[in-house]
Design brief:
The model has no long low-confidence stretch (mean pLDDT about 95). By secondary structure, the protein is an alpha/beta fold. The strands form two sheets. A seven-stranded mixed sheet has the order 1-2-3-4-5-6-7. It has five helices and twelve strands.
């Protein structure tokens, strides 16, 4: 079930191995940030139905990174006319070349079909959907192409698997993970202003998110840099 976070922003906490999913309602543009594994697509469609929309109406999918627990649900959406898929160029270019290693699909016993990422993201890019503006922040560490999305006017940060609640953060022992890069990414987040954090797993941080980011940075620095 989606919970309303702010105007246009809705957040669903994951089931099982799925990622959390953010839905952004911009009228003609219907956006999902991450899609889960796809195993619970029917349930996701039902949750969207309660908000007056459906998977068939999704126009844009932004992936915080390409691990299968965030990406797998995209295959239910590929038939949508004009669907735009966004992913940082470091991971999107690999997928577009047919390299699916970073999806970790084989680790989950899955052989996912190839597809194309049409929108290769870069740090500092701004994605505009009506009144919603998402600043792309390249935050490597969990994976080389991990991103966060900052809606500065609303004080919302979508953190993917870079930062979680309670001072926690994403693992760095998967392909292209880099503990020192993660520390730098968390330091960057800790210096920005936002009050709400929507992570890739666990509960959202609905107040004091900047302090939560500072804790994640401090814990990661102590773990990886000392």
């Amino acid at each position: 079930m989606f919970n309303r976070i702010a105007e246009s922003f809705y957040f669903e906490i994951s089931r099982s191995f799925d990622s959390n999913i953010t839905y952004i309602d911009c009228g003609d543009r219907q956006i999902l940030v991450d899609t889960g594994t796809g195993l619970f697509a029917d349930s996701l469609n039902g949750s969207l139905g309660k908000l007056g929309t459906s998977l068939d109406r999704i126009t844009d999918v932004i992936l915080t990174h390409s691990h299968i627990d965030h990406l797998g649900g995209i295959f239910r959406l590929l038939k949508n006319d004009g669907l735009q898929i966004y992913l940082h160029q470091l991971e999107g270019e690999r997928i577009n070349s047919g390299d699916m290693e970073l999806t970790l699909a084989r680790d989950f016993g899955s052989d996912i079909p190839s597809f194309k990422v049409g929108q290769l993201l870069r740090d500092g890019q701004i994605l505009k959907f009506g009144d919603v503006e998402l600043l792309v922040l390249h935050t490597p560490g969990h994976s080389e192409g991990s991103i966060c999305l900052h809606e500065r006017n609303m004080g919302i940060m979508i953190t993917g698997d870079t930062m979680f609640t309670g001072g926690s953060f994403g693992r760095v022992d998967l392909p292209s993970g880099d503990p020192e890069a993660l520390v730098r990414s968390l330091k960057r987040l800790s210096e920005l202003d936002f009050s709400v954090a929507l992570p890739g797993h666990m509960s959202p941080v609905t107040s004091g998110a900047k302090r939560s980011a500072q804790l994640s940075y401090e814990f990661a620095r102590e773990m990886f840099m000392t």
